[in-house]
Amino acid sequence: MSAAESYLVRGLRVQDHRFTAPLDHAHPEGPSITLFARELSDPEGKDLPWLLFLQGGPGGKGNRPTGLNGWLAEAAKSFRILMLDQRGTGLSTPVNRQTLPRVGNLAAQADYLSHFRASDIVADAELIRAELGSGPWSIFGQSYGGFCALTYLSFAPEGLKEVLITGGLGPLSGPADQVYQATFERLRRRNAEYFAKYPADRELLTQLMRHVSDVPEFLPTGEQLTPERVQMLGNYLGGNTRFDALHFVFEDVFLDTLDGARLSDNFLATVASYVGRAANPLYALMHESIYVQGAASNWAAARVLAANPDFRPDAAEPLLTGEAIYPWYFEQDPALLPLRELADVLAARTEGWGALYDLEQLARNTVPVAAAVYSDDIFVDREISLATAAAVKGLHVWESADFHHDGIADDGEGIFARLLRLVRA
């Protein structure tokens, strides 16, 4: 382990840590990777107990806060927070189109990525906990971080004092298809809610989809904007404040030019910043694998989409889509183009993933757990979440219709405080 000198960022004490971990924890003598984690605390909180934060994703680096606010401000009253760049992300050994060719051929790359799931993240966390000299610690998992927390409870509960989860109770068994079947139904309702509030945007979206089908429009990064990529703006529907922010994205779509109606640079720049995966290619590569338990995903979201024609780009009144990865991502995103064959290999892979959960261990769990379940979450389905909660002994559910998937961005302090009270009740 190595640690840099601490520094202050607007009232937040920050210290960077680096650790060396085996690529495969079952074979520690093999290749190693670097893990990066950032310690965050109140300047007076240097000796407080640890809280490990597991962010959403998969494939996203830890948050880079620039001050002591939101849920972080509440957590810093009781903890030193360790913000982990999960393996393959951020300042940990990266995984992307530039680094994967060094691993070898497609089969070698797929084998390499089989060590980048929740079970490996948990093993990394336990290695880090030991190197920090911590006893059982508290963890806070948001979205995919909650999936990782359930894996932690399954395979290393001795390392945990208490667990907080927000929007992160995924399915414990079954195929990936069930996730997307639920997702499309919730998305359908969320689209209806949005267009009921902003009815003019209904015709605007239809016009926009037809326009990009007929007229070549290019993002500032050079690639062509397609109807499918316009639909990706549906991720805005998964948030409280982002729901209304989508309306402001649509408000300046078209400009009158010498060539007729064209898309504005403002709109194109917004779309470009939202749909590209250059910063987190691991998200696209590994997204469906987080549900794989025995059966290959075989592009589950694309198969379920085919059974929901109202979400097709050429539907009479096309709908916005949400959090899912489709094969065309690897045809339209320059950062993903070199990874297309690898994505197909991963989608077809059945063996070598390793277990994600131990249902028997979860049924006899003794670690205090509290989870926020958002009633209308379009990313993590309510019914799936409640079924998972019922399978974890002693898990306290706080269900709320006041928040969506990004609840901790809306009232992080209140949500964190409430969950902490629940696990300590």
TrEMBL record:
Transmembrane segments: none annotated. Residues 49-194 form the AB hydrolase-1 domain. It comes from the Bacteria. InterPro entries: AB_hydrolase_1, AB_hydrolase_fold, Peptidase_S33, Serine_prot/Carboxylest_S33. GO terms for molecular function: aminopeptidase activity. Pfam families: Abhydrolase_1. GO terms for biological process: proteolysis. This is Alpha/beta hydrolase. Keywords: Hydrolase. Belongs to the peptidase S33 family.
